[in-house]
Design a protein that fits this description.
The chain is mainly alpha-helical. The chain has a single domain, classed as Helix Hairpins (Orthogonal Bundle), CATH 1.10.287. The protein is 64% helix and 9% strand. It contains two helices and two strands. A two-stranded antiparallel sheet has the order 1-2. Helix 1 packs across helix 2. The longest helix is centred in the middle third of the chain and has 27 residues.
Length: 67
């Protein structure tokens, strides 16, 4: 997610706390928040996928997903 969208999320948040948002702005805010969450989860998953656990013998194993 690019910085302009993050700035817009922050602008809408500040405006909602002071003046309030129109229905259109609330919808835009919700869409931007969902996009941000999706990007955050993707980055987190990528980080977790790259983690390798090394046991006492020096064997490297990727993290296993828990259901």
């Amino acid at each position: 997610m690019d910085q302009t969208k993050i700035n817009r999320i922050n602008e809408l948040s500040k405006k909602s706390k002071t003046v309030g948002l129109t229905a259109e702005e609330k919808n835009e805010q919700q869409i931007l928040r969902q996009e941000y969450i999706k990007a955050f989860r993707g980055n987190l998953q990528s980080t977790l996928d790259s983690i390798v656990v090394v046991d006492k013998e020096g064997n490297k194993k990727p993290l296993n997903k828990k259901d």
